[in-house]
Amino acid sequence: MSFSQFCADEVTALRRAQPTTAEGVVALVRVFDPADAGSRADAVYSGPDLFEQISPAGWQIEWREDACWLAVHPETGSRLGHYEGLLYAEPSLAATA
């Protein structure tokens, strides 16, 4: 499989799944792009513009600087950190009753 096909499959999977939690995004990305054993990231994303792939599921972005951003899902309270393709899942901030 070519790298471009690999990335296309990853994008298709994200668009179909429409994950609404950081853990869901990380789990799906790991299928295609498992984190390097030496990395502290939860997953590594190699496809094109991750935020473009997850924004249809309702994610909102908070830009930090350059390739660093935080995506927040307003319904689940989940947060996903991104820095140059490295993904970091944070605990859900959703309120519990």
Structural notes for this entry:
There is one protein chain. Helix 1 packs antiparallel against helix 2 (22-32). This protein has a five-stranded antiparallel beta sheet with strand order 1-5-4-3-2, with helices on one face. By secondary structure, the chain is an alpha+beta fold. The chain is globular. It has three helices and five strands; from the N terminus they run ααβαββββ. The longest helix is centred in the first third of the chain and has 15 residues, at 3-17. The termini are far apart. The chain has helices spanning 3-17, 22-32, 50-54, and strands at residues 43-44, 60-65, 68-72, 79-83, 86-90.
What's the multimeric state? single chain
Distance separating the two termini: 47 Å
Low-confidence segments: 91-97
Count all strands and give the number: 5
Backbone structural class: alpha+beta
Report Rg.
13 Å
Main sheet summary: 5 strands, antiparallel
* Helix and strand run: HHEHEEEE
- The portion of residues forming beta strands comes to 15-25%
Summarize the amount of helix as a percent range: 25-40%
Biggest sheet strand line-up: 1-5-4-3-2
Fold blueprint:
Elements: H1 3-17, H2 22-32, E1 43-44, H3 50-54, E2 60-65, E3 68-72, E4 79-83, E5 86-90
Antiparallel strand pairs: 1-5, 2-3, 3-4, 4-5
Helix pairs in contact: 1-2
Question: Brief overview, please?
Answer:
The chain is α+β, with helices and mostly antiparallel strands. Helix content is about 30%, strand content about 25%. Keywords: Plasmid.
Which tags fit this structure?
single chain, globular, alpha+beta, 97 residues, disordered C terminus, 5-stranded antiparallel sheet, 3 helices
